[in-house]
Records
---
Amino acid sequence: MMKLTIEQFTKMMDSPRAQGYADGELFEIDLEENRLFLGSQYIPLESRPANYGGKQWYFICPDCDTRRRVLYGVVGFMACGECRGIYRRTRNRTKTDCQYWWGMALKEIRKLEPYCYGQFTEGADSPHFGRSHVHWLTGTASTVMVGCVEGILGMRPDFYGLKIEPAIPKDWDGFEIDKEFRGKHLHIVVNNHGHVPGGCKKVTIDGQEIEGNYISAQLLKDQTEIIVDIS
Ligand SMILES: [Zn+2]
């Protein structure tokens, strides 16, 4: 197994760019672009100010995205010692290789909010195997938003205004939400002192109680405080 230290590269450099061979493998390093190519593998670099002036350089482990001064592995699959210890070197894994897949699942959770689907997930040939991307461009975001605004808050707009009728678990004491509505900023406080699962008992707009739960758009100012008592 090959072992590389960051000093191997940075100590000998008298300009920000260098090429050469490390353990017989061609490398190209660029400290202005913060990158190292070792064979075909891209390894990001990062620097921090050193205690006594100058810079301390680090590899960013391609597997766990952590700053490391030493990487291990075989060419094309260098990673930090921790990743090397956890993941077996074989790429021919079975579905019952629990430790590996559990690690991969955790890794995915770290990279993406658990309620979102990514648009794509990098495959086994990528040094970032398991990482997902572009979650806010999928339908997930709008679905979560509709669930919060129309479902939980129960906000139903029409041409003349909006109706608010929250639906929440009855053990919730309430919640607050900020919402832009036709150019007006609404700060909405929902109280559920009686612990019921939904409905609307009283609505107050900037301190004025209104009849029912339909809010005419004319009542809304640039900053509007709406208090909804469910019970
Ligand atoms: Zn690592």
---
Amino acid sequence: MGKGGSDGNEGDTGSLEEMMEGTMSIKKFKCPKCGCRRAEEVMVNVTESIVIEGIDEDGYVIYGNSLSDGGVIDRYQCQKCGEVILDEQGRQIASSEHFANHISSMKGKTNIQKRVKK
Ligand SMILES: [Zn+2]
């Protein structure tokens, strides 16, 4: 008794990549360290508010949509290993435009081995 609270373990971002599957020219981040294809934007000074739908039978709060307001991008990093993404000059990337440019400019630099067609 008394073990209240959920651990909030709801990392269900998996559907996005599947949606992108088969679409045209989407450039994906690839972590230079671990090869993970997901990056995350880390923001600081964010005010987040979450709609509370009600309380369920067990006494837990049921959350609805969340809204975040304000905030400043601190960095971009690998979702898996936390490797901070730096641009060509070794500067920390701190805007979505910068990040997009960086990923776009990585074209051709990834170590994809060309398969020889028979
Ligand atoms: Zn990584």
---
Amino acid sequence: MELSEEQAARIAMLREDAENRYAEGGDGALDHSVAHKPHDSAFALLLDGKTSTPVVHDERCYICRDPEFAAMGLPLCRRCPDCTRSGRGDGHIPADDTACTVCGYEDGPDDYPTSG
Ligand SMILES: [Zn+2]
Ligand SMILES: [Zn+2]
């Protein structure tokens, strides 16, 4: 597969990030790094230009810390409806969970009414 200059730069950035996290003691940071696995089916997602924009950040959260999730355009951690309602700040609900890591609130469909 031929990478454009921009794609190659993005992969290099993601690899470096994973290596830094691994160096800081992030066990599995390299194992989980799709940027290191050109034959992984998810690798193409890093190249298609679709990205997600992080809205919250938790330094202890592996999803927030790993820029590959955003680079793949996957759903990222979200604001907590209860924290934002109560003025505690944004809160943090991991993309793979339903409970806020700040207050423990579990969100559900009622928190995200669809319009129309
Ligand atoms: Zn997170
Ligand atoms: Zn919360």
---
Amino acid sequence: MNKKERAEEKKRKRGDQWKAYYAAHKEPILNQQREYRHTTRGHLVRKAAARRRNARMRLSGGALKGSDWDLLRAAFGYKCAYCGRAESEVGPFEPDHATPVARGGRTTLDNIRPACPTCNQRKGDQSAEEFLEVLAKERRLKP
Ligand SMILES: [Zn+2]
């Protein structure tokens, strides 16, 4: 196992541990997060995050035009660009940045993919290629 593989193994393990912990303590964790959001500090932290997100959005070229979004979804056959599920099954798609805004991606037709809410949230700040690789790995592991 090389250094990169060891780091990935460690990251995966930590993720699994957190998933197990979260599953066992979901209610108290959600309550704690909810309470934190209502504190002054929690409120300011969220406000600052929203400001950063809006600033990134402005710098990335603003929002996609509605007609462009329709064209894009049609071009993908109204299927999620990542898991391939139909928009009619998984609820309205969200515009996902293939190269994330956090990594310099812009809001242009060639950088936006229609993504189901689950994929969009799971993808986070991974690139489209990285996230597709994660999904492919999961598929290979499935019995
Ligand atoms: Zn999806």
